Amino acid sequence: MCGRFTLTVELETLQAMFGFRYQGRVAPRFNIAPSQEVLTVVVQEGERIGKMMRWGLVPFWAKDDRIGAKMINARAETVDEKASFRHAFKRRRCLILADGFYEWRKEGAKKVPYRFTLATDAPFAFAGLWERWEGASGPLETCTIITTKANELVAAIHDRMPVILPSERHGDWLDSSLDDSEYLKTFLQPYPSEQMRMYEVSPLVNSPKNDVSACIESVNSR
To answer: Which of 8, 104, 105, 182 is the most exposed place for a label (fewest CB within 10 A)?
Structure first.
């Protein structure tokens, strides 16, 4: 699964890389957790738009938005079959922007956190889905991150990893007129190990209350 990630890059850099319009500010995030707001990119009327959405997808047919707590990830293998994700996979795909994610390795009774980034440290986009849920207090937009089997690097820590979309796939992924499930599922592959790196980080990241730059520091560089 993917249960925590980071986005520390300035908004202007993200807009230059991913080509979207956004009204507002984006603060650096060092420990993004489920149920929090995340920066996504969608296409509306032919234009890429940045939107903040709550992490944890609430299907449009849900009776209660609390279901989102169980919907932070969608498995690539079954994303086009599950009722919770099938509609979004056809029509509501998004990019979820990040520059790293965390996984934990069990060592006896404790869990040791590691951060994974691209080898270049550049920001990237997770393959995401989103939905709009109409609640009593108004519409709620939520999203989920698609996961796939781990590549060799991540597999040393965890058997799953988030799908990182290469830039050449972004256009098709965001194109809602494309609804060929078999074609879209070819995008959902493990990112190449040789283009990533990992390092151990502080147990600070274990608590989502800690959203500070120390979360992304290597324990070996202190």
So the answer is: 182
- Please state the three-class secondary structure of the chain as a single string: CCCCEEECCCHHHHHHHHCCECCCCCCCEEEECCCCEEEEEEEECCEEEEEEEEECCCCCCCCCHHHHHHCCEEECCCCCCCHHHHHHHHHCEEEEEECEEEEEEEECCEEEEEEEEECCCCCEEEEEEEEEEEECCEEEEEEEEEEEECCHHHHCCCCEEECEECHHHHHHHHCCCCCCHHHHHCCCCCCCHHHEEEEEECHHHHCCCCCCHHHHCEHHHC
- 120's tokens: 């270049």
Q: Which of 37, 81, 103, 143 is catalytic?
A: 103
**Tens digits of residue pLDDT in 87-123:** 999 999 999 999 999 999 988 888 999 999 999 999 9
Catalytic residue among 2, 94, 143, 215: 2
Q: Is residue 94 annotated as a catalytic residue, yes or no?
A: no
The reported pLDDT for the residue numbered 120 is 97
Please confirm, yes or no, whether 143 is among the known catalytic residues: no
User: Cβ contacts of residue 143 below 8 Å, gap of 6+?
Assistant: 38, 40, 53, 54, 55, 56, 57, 94, 96, 128, 129, 130, 131
